[in-house]
Protein 1
Amino acid sequence: MGLFWGIEQPHFYVNEGNISSVLPSNFLPRLDEEQCTGCESCIGSCHIYALSPGQNGEPLLDEEKCIGCGVCVSVCPSGALQLQRKKPLYEIPKDKKEQLRQIAAEKGKL
Ligand code: SF4
Ligand code: SF4
């Protein structure tokens, strides 16, 4: 337990290897390096240790770990982080012909 404003606060421990129960969002934080001051606030805010400091304190993202919660974005004092939508896993076909082409490609027939 830690102290915060004189009140004991629980510590939350995250088992890094066991976050499969958390459904990731479809977003990832993106850094604008021009705006980053290297304060590392974002790095300390990530509960699952998906950020590590680069040479100048800028955050380096481990996309495999990140769940896209946006906490790091909310703590950045300079607006250097933005949440951006991930690329779609699957392109919705425009028409039947495109759908058949996708199916053939998935089956390795193209
Ligand atoms: S979006 Fe959430 S999980 Fe991803 S790096 Fe930021 S704080 Fe960590
Ligand atoms: S909180 Fe913002 S300014 Fe600070 S290191 Fe992270 S991205 Fe850079």
Protein 2
Amino acid sequence: MKITKITAVPISYRLPEGKTVTMGVGSTLKRDAIIVRVETSEGIVGYGESHPGRSPGAIVSLIHNTLSPLLVGMPATDVVGAWQRVHRMQFSSHGLGAGTALALSGIDMALWDIRGKAANMPLYELLGGSRKRLPAYAGGIALGYQAPQALAEEAQSYIEQGYRAVKLRIGDTVKDDIARCLHVRKVLGDDIDILTDANTAYTIAQARRVLPVLADIQAGWLEEPFACNDFASYREAAKITPLVPIAAGENHFMRFEFAQMLEAGAVQVWQPDLSKTGGITEAQRIAAMASAFRIPINAHSSATGLNHAATLHFLAATENAGYFEACVSHFNPFRDMFGPTFKIGADGCVEPPAGPGLGVEVDESIFDKFPAVDGPGYVVKF
Ligand SMILES: [Mg+2]
């Protein structure tokens, strides 16, 4: 079974007028995603999702014009070989770094979908896992900057759905962040896990003031206080308190950057995104490296049900799996456009889909509803 064709389809959704979610990376205007379709000589078609990296057209071009010519004709089940060829011929030199990681991620995911369909096995089984209950937190583009009361009400609405953990967006002013965190803890009580995400918006001085409060409210982690390559600040932040783990990884690409994170000794929770870091193949390598150091893998989620399904299968087959990031965004029609991929239970847990491969039935006619809009999806808050 050979790879015969690789196609990338960009899709976009503009948020309704006047509606946005604001967080450390800015205010959301639109959602973008790239669906990758891989066709084979035996007629099996696999689907994956590449993160658009704020430039969907660039990633689509990379897939069509640079990676596809490298991969068409290769055995469709050889995910390691495909990965290796892209690494050798693209990453190693003149390779556009993170952009290629995004592009490769969707192709790799589609190849795993093909492997599962060919074997008539759900991916969790193919990867060596089982259909187990996976703890989930209410995340995605939600719980953004707002008044403490409104934020607590939004958080409460997810608890009512079954979630036992929520992720608040911080990285605003220190004063407002502290007020929100204290209020939400008071309203939710002590049994809910409160996670926090600064989306790279803090300085080390701000982190010094916020982290003791996060320790007081027993926050589960502080995610991405700093830019992805600011390892010096990450190292400093890890010394502030042993009580709040520092998390990062959604903007770290391939095992090599996670190895740098390990060497910095500053990040205790790893969050690779299967649509960004190099696909399922690379996420497994990252998880294996983390497992030797007892670092949990709390994979970051992208936009569509394809990424969500892949992440659920991956977590169900990962020894050191942590939470699944469940997208609870009010403004993400991509989550359920092929039907719901996960359902939160009263136990705060979800399960991977049961069908072969990713277990997602893709109806391509739906793409016409979401024509691509190029350009970034956020406006800056500065
Ligand atoms: Mg994040």
